[in-house]
Design goal:
Elements lengths: L4 E7 L6 H14 L4 E4 L2 E2 L2 E4 L2 E4 H9 L6 H4 L2 E2 L4 H7 L3 H15 L5 E5 L14 H8 L2 E7 L3 H16 L4 E9 L4 H14 L4 E6 L9 H8 L2 E4 L10 E4 L4 H4 L7 E6 L3 H8 L3 E3 L2 E3 L3 E5 L6 H10 L3 E3 L4 H9 L10 H14 L2 H6 L2
Parallel strand pairs: 1-7, 1-8, 2-7, 3-6, 8-9, 9-10, 12-13, 13-16, 16-17
Antiparallel strand pairs: 4-5, 11-17, 14-15
Length: 365
C-alpha cells in the first residue's frame, strides 16, 4: 500500500460529474500503464448482477474497463429503501467499516492505483456512519472535490465540504470545476483558481459543460418513464437535447423546433404531430431533425396518420399521462452514463485528458 495512488472523488452535491471524472481518470491512468481499480463504497442507485445489488457506477466501470472479476468488492455497501431506518434502530458501524476495508484490500492487490467514488457531498452517508469524509479517512485516501461553474457560491460550498474532511484528518488534493459555460471557462479558471489558492487549495482542472453528457436517448426516456413504443423503434437510440411541449398552433410550433428536440403533444393533435415528425423541416435555411415524439393522454392517431409516422422512421412513444405530467418528468430526469453510451464514455476521457491536470494529480499522490 506504500506506493498506492489512492484517490477519493467527492463533490459539493449530487450529479456534479463524479462518474465522468472516474471514467476519464481510469482511462488516463491506464494509458500511463498504471494498473488501476475502482470502488464505490456506499451506493444508492443499484442494478442486479448475479443476484446481488451492485451500485450502478461500479457496474458501469466494471463493464467499460473489463474489471468485473471483483465487482462485488467494488460495491460493498448499497443503501436501498428502508436501509437507513433499519440502521438507526440497529447501528452496525464496525461491520460496515470492516466490509468496506476488506473489499478495499482485496481490490488493491497487484494494483498501482484505486479510484474511490463517493456519493454526493462530504456529509452524505453520515446517517449510517459512513459519510464520504468517514470513508476517505478509513481508506487513507486523498480527496478531489468536484464543484460546478460559478465563483462565490462554488468556493463557499467547497470550503464547507473541506471543513468536514479536515475534521476527519483527510487531505484534500484539489478541486475540479465541472460543467462551466464554454465562454466563461478562462474567467472561472483564473478567478476561482486565485480564490482557491488563497485558501491553500489546488485547482486541478476546469471542464466545460458538454450537452452530450446530459442528453439521454429516446430509449432511456422510455425506460425511465415507463412509456410504450408506437413506431420508429429502429431509431430509438437517438439522443435528446431538448423537450418541447407542442400545445400551440403548428405555425407557432415550427419556430421552436431544433435539432435533437423531443416533441411532446396530445395524441389527438395530428397537426403538430405531422409537423414534428417530418424527417427534415426547413428553418431559416437549415434542415432541422427532431429526436422523437411523445403522444400523451392515452390517445393515438388512426391508421393513415399512424402509417405516416411509421414511414418517417422517427421514434414515437406514447403514454396514458397528460402532456404536462410527462414534460415535468423529463425536466427532472437525470440519466447516468450507461455502458451503451459509448459516445459519452469517449467524451469523458477526452474532457479529462484536455481539461484536467492528471500529471499534477499523480505528482501529489
Amino acid at each position: 500500500m506504500k506506493n498506492l495512488k489512492n484517490i477519493f472523488i467527492s463533490a459539493i452535491h449530487q450529479n456534479a460529474g463524479k462518474t465522468t471524472l472516474s471514467l476519464g481518470l481510469f482511462k488516463s491512468f491506464q494509458e500511463r500503464k498504471i494498473r488501476t481499480t475502482f470502488m464505490k463504497p456506499v451506493g444508492q442507485e443499484t442494478v442486479t448482477y448475479e443476484e446481488k445489488s451492485i451500485d450502478k457506477d461500479s457496474y458501469l466501470i466494471g463493464e467499460v474497463y473489463h474489471c468485473k472479476r471483483h465487482i462485488k468488492e467494488m460495491s460493498p455497501v448499497t443503501v436501498g429503501r428502508g436501509y437507513t431506518e433499519k440502521y438507526i434502530l440497529n447501528p452496525q458501524k464496525q461491520e460496515l467499516q470492516d466490509k468496506i476495508n476488506t473489499s478495499f484490500r482485496t481490490l488493491i492487490k497487484n494494483k498501482d492505483a484505486i479510484i474511490v467514488e463517493g456519493t454526493g457531498h462530504a456529509g452524505v452517508g453520515s446517517v449510517i456512519d459512513c459519510s464520504n469524509a468517514d470513508v476517505a479517512a478509513l481508506l487513507g485516501s486523498k480527496v478531489i472535490i468536484v464543484s460546478q461553474g460559478g465563483i462565490g457560491r462554488s468556493i463557499d460550498e467547497i470550503m464547507l465540504n473541506k471543513a468536514l474532511f479536515d475534521m476527519c484528518k483527510v487531505e484534500v488534493l484539489g478541486v475540479i470545476v465541472n460543467k462551466v459555460l464554454p465562454d466563461k471557462l478562462e474567467k472561472i479558471k483564473s478567478i476561482v483558481g486565485k480564490g482557491l489558492e488563497r485558501k491553500g487549495i489546488r485547482l486541478l482542472g476546469v471542464i466545460p459543460e458538454i450537452p452530450l453528457l446530459s442528453a439521454p436517448t429516446v430509449d432511456q426516456i422510455r425506460e425511465r418513464l415507463n412509456l410504450k413504443v408506437f413506431s420508429g423503434e429502429e431509431n430509438i437510440h437517438t439522443r435528446v437535447y431538448d423537450a418541447i411541449v407542442a400545445a400551440m398552433e403548428p405555425y407557432n410550433m415550427i419556430g421552436h423546433l431544433r435539432d435533437g428536440a423531443l416533441v411532446i403533444t396530445s395524441g389527438d393533435r395530428v397537426d403538430n404531430m405531422l409537423v414534428a415528425v417530418s424527417s427534415y423541416l426547413l428553418k431559416e435555411g437549415k434542415n432541422v431533425k427532431v429526436a422523437g415524439l411523445i403522444l400523451t393522454g392515452g390517445l393515438t392517431p388512426g391508421p393513415k396518420i399512424a402509417g405516416l409516422l411509421k414511414d418517417s422512421r422517427i421514434p414515437v412513444l406514447y403514454s396514458e399521462e397528460d402532456t404536462y405530467t410527462i414534460a415535468a418528468a423529463i425536466e427532472n430526469l437525470t440519466c447516468k452514463i450507461q455502458k451503451t453510451d459509448k459516445d459519452k464514455i469517449l467524451e469523458a476521457h477526452r474532457l479529462i485528458k484536455n481539461y484536467v491536470d492528471v500529471g499534477m494529480i499523480l505528482e501529489n499522490l
